[in-house]
Amino acid sequence: MGQVQGKVALVTGGAAGIGAAIATTLGREGATVVLTDLDTRRGEETAAGIRAAGGEALFLPQDVTEEERWREIIAEIDQRHGRLDVLVANAGIAIIAPITEMSLADWRKQTAVNIDGVFLSAKHGIPLMRKSGQGGSIVMISSVAGLRGSAGLAGYSATKGAVRLFSKSVALECAGARDGIRCNSIHPGIIGTEIWEKMPAGAADARRNAPIDPRVLAEAGVPTGQLGTPQDVANAVLFLASDASGYVNGSEIVVDAGMMAG
Ligand code: NAD
């Protein structure tokens, strides 16, 4: 029996990267997975991959910054399954720029996806979690950049720090006899995904004035010198989604091979 057998899970940004690994892992471990993303083609492919491996998965297009779409997504999950047990707020973007060169529009764009999107996930997901009366687990994907400042990624760092404390607030507000909902954050280190390639054209490391290569960053900043994989993060999400973490609430798991240990 899978570690999340019978649970209904929603994963945002589930088409690619870390979100796809999370959706696939939860599907493999017995959850019915609803994954959402801006990228319909890859979202459908990821869902089809989960089904081909014997799991249950549905893709729904979504921009996490749009509140009306959140209402529709949650209503559809309610109609299909009548419950929501696991909510993984994973969708996120990173915009790199020195503070003095960052436009207010870019600052707000990043804030909209990384903070508003996470807030809306909790606002609309929690009522359906409450409905079953059996609690649930919310996992918010922050970053090591949410634990310390990052030159060149100040706006990203600010959003990820906000996610960390928002997660703890949800944990306090929704724990206890009435809701029994747990909420925890995960702080990945340097993970090999396309997020590094998607940073705006001409983006440069504010300190080195050179394109960012995550492998170089990992070699320099990670004690093992290794780049992490989406699966490394998905494994931590699986623990938090499963009943094995039943006493873990308001906590943070750092998945960085020791980058933050020093
Ligand atoms: P990614 O770019 O590979 O995947 C992100 C997914 O989110 C994409 O499929 C994208 O289409 C989707 N997305 C973006 N904006 C969206 C929106 N408005 N609505 C819905 N979907 C949207 O990135 P990733 O590396 O897999 O990142 C996943 C999460 O992990 C992010 O929150 C990111 O900040 C965090 N993270 C990544 C790293 C890393 O090194 N890759 C490290 C720490 C934290």
From TrEMBL:
InterPro entries (alphabetical): KR_dom, NAD(P)-bd_dom_sf, Sc_DH/Rdtase_CS, SDR_fam
Highest taxon above the source species: Bacteria
Annotated Ketoreductase domain residues: 7-193
UniProt key word Oxidoreductase: yes
Gene3D superfamilies: NAD(P)-binding Rossmann-like Domain (3.40.50.720)
Molecular functions per Gene Ontology: glucose 1-dehydrogenase [NAD(P)+] activity
Coiled-coil intervals: none
Alphabetic keyword roster: Oxidoreductase
Enzyme class at the top of the EC tree: oxidoreductase
Annotated family: Belongs to the short-chain dehydrogenases/reductases (SDR) family.
Name of the protein this chain belongs to: Glucose 1-dehydrogenase
Leader sequence residues: none
Source species taxonomy: Bacteria, Pseudomonadati, Pseudomonadota, Alphaproteobacteria, Acetobacterales
Enzyme Commission identifier(s): 1.1.1.47
